[in-house]
Specification:
Elements: E1 4-5, E2 8-9, H1 10-26, E3 30-39, E4 42-48, E5 59-64, E6 73-79, E7 85-88, E8 91-99, E9 109-115, E10 122-127, E11 135-142
Parallel strand pairs: 4-11
Antiparallel strand pairs: 1-2, 3-8, 4-7, 5-6, 5-9, 9-10
Length: 147
């Protein structure tokens, strides 16, 4: 019986990594698997712009602007709590790091959209290529929809 991790035989994974490393070495570079961040942790508060009261149950959506396919992709969603607070978790993904590679930094550009009933939508784009710590989005004030 083979040792397994999450249903994938460890032996097959090891063979795949070794083959990838060998081919990369022959191509003049070094490759190894690593887990990289595709969405940094972010947090903030949502308030009514006029009353300065927290907005509960606002929907916060993170959309990766370009994941290499040219199509936007929703990476996570959450809702604000009764105090208007929200947090979006860090999202990581496995990939292959190669040396040398002139374009190794993956563009982590994403869009945050906040929607709440009877309020105007809020949108903000963030380029997190070099950000390694959680992003404090501070206070986001939503304006009421015009009647």
């Amino acid at each position: 019986m083979h040792a397994q991790h999450h249903g994938i035989p460890v032996r097959k994974t090891l063979i795949a990594v070794l083959l990838l490393s060998a081919f990369s070495f022959l191509a003049g570079c070094i490759a190894f698997p690593y887990k990289y961040t595709v969405q940094q942790e972010a947090f903030g508060h949502v308030y009514d712009a006029q009353t300065n009261q927290p907005i509960a149950d606002a929907l916060i959506t993170v959309t990766k602007i370009d994941d290499g396919t040219g199509k936007p992709k929703i990476t996570s969603q959450t809702r604000s709590d009764s105090e208007g607070y929200f947090t979006l978790p860090r999202v990581k993904k496995w990939g292959v790091f190669t040396i040398p590679n002139e374009n190794q930094w993956i563009r982590l550009q994403w869009k945050i959209t906040i929607t709440a009933n009877s309020y105007q939508d809020y949108t903000r784009e963030i380029d997190t290529r070099y950000i390694v710590s959680p992003i404090d989005l501070n206070t986001i004030n939503l304006k009421k929809n015009e009647p």
